[in-house]
Each structure stands twice: as structure tokens, then as C-alpha cells.
Design brief:
about 190 residues, about 50% helix, single chain, mainly alpha, three-stranded mixed beta sheet
């Protein structure tokens, strides 16, 4: 379950085609807290092996950055108390794609990530890269690109996250825990 309408949906659903794992991605355009509450409600009385909420922080310049990080911190704690796994990215999910090509240290905003992916994939990533047709092609594009490496992305994201997880979210820089969900999906598919 997540707030990403196309990119995240088609990326995670592609794992269903790779093996024994079944991914059911539900898009909800709601606050992070509402996403978590919806996940809690949707799983009552059901026997799922794992439930994940995918959160893309997407810093909003109209809101105080500190407030956005404070709210995300509270939402992550709320999810943990309710046994809901969360894969989050700050500032954008596209950081996960970029890590398939090279390690990222420091903070990279959406604009920089979109520019990089536009060049790598010869597309105007914002808005064309987020369109349904292109979003559906991203998993295959990454898997067929010799320069992209999923294992490297997992290792880079894990190392970066572990190096900064003791810091407040607002001080962590470019970070994503999507590697945890991807690793879990790959393990389940074996």
C-alpha cells in the first residue's frame, strides 16, 4: 500500500512476475498516517505474510521541513507499534532507482534525481517518467541495463541507512529503506 500512483505500483507489482511472491499494491492519495491506518484496517482478520506501506516523503516547500520530518518520525513509530512495515524514501522514491547506478551520499532532491534519470533513460522524467506507460517499463528498463545493479542498490541503500539511522530523519540526508522491502520480496520469491 502506498501513495505512489504509477512508479511505485508498477515497480513493486513487477516482483509478482519474478517468482513465488504475490504483491498486491493499493494506491491511496492520503497522508502517511492515513495510509498506515488503512493498512491496519485492511489487514484485520487476514493472514498476510507481510504488510508494507511505501512512503515517499516528497518534501513540500509550502510546509516547514522540520514539521514534515517530525510527522514522518511519528508516523514511522505509529506503524511500528501496529506491526506495519514501512519502506520510505527522503526526498523521493527515485533515489532507489538512482542507487542502481551509483552510491549517493548527501542529500539529493527530486529535481536532481529526475534530471539524472532523464539523462540515463532518455526521457523527460517529470512528467513523462511518471506516466503509466513509462512507469510500467521501469522494472524491465533497469533489469536490462548493464549499468544498473539491484544488489548494489540494496547494499548502497543499506549502508547509507545504517550509517545515519541514529540521527533524526531531518539530518539523515538522502536515505531510503526501500532496500528492506526489496530484499524481503526477493527472499520470499526464492
Amino acid at each position: 500500500m502506498g501513495e505512489g500512483e504509477n512508479t511505485e505500483k508498477y515497480y513493486f507489482e513487477s516482483f509478482s512476475r519474478k517468482g513465488q511472491v504475490q504483491v498486491k499494491y493499493q494506491h491511496y492519495r492520503r497522508s502517511n498516517r492515513q495510509l498506515i491506518e488503512k493498512a491496519i484496517a485492511n489487514t484485520r482478520g487476514k493472514n498476510y505474510s507481510a504488510v508494507w506501506v511505501v512512503i515517499d516523503l516528497d518534501l513540500n516547500p509550502a510546509m516547514a521541513e522540520a514539521e514534515q520530518y517530525r510527522q514522518l518520525t511519528e508516523d514511522l513509530a505509529y506503524a511500528e507499534r501496529n506491526k506495519i512495515n514501512v519502506a520510505y524514501s527522503a526526498d523521493a522514491f527515485e533515489l532507489w532507482f538512482r542507487l542502481h547506478y551509483e552510491n549517493v551520499t548527501g542529500f539529493l532532491g527530486r529535481e536532481q534525481l529526475y534530471e539524472d534519470l532523464s539523462q540515463r533513460w532518455t526521457v523527460n522524467y517529470d512528467p513523462d517518467g511518471k506516466a503509466q506507460a513509462f512507469a510500467q517499463s521501469i522494472p524491465q528498463l533497469i533489469s536490462e541495463d548493464d549499468a544498473a545493479n539491484q544488489e548494489n542498490a540494496i547494499a548502497c541503500a543499506k549502508n547509507q541507512h545504517q550509517a545515519v539511522q541514529h540521527l533524526p530523519l531531518s539530518e539523515q540526508g538522502a536515505v531510503t529503506t526501500v532496500y528492506q522491502l526489496v530484499a524481503a520480496l526477493l527472499e520470499s520469491a526464492r
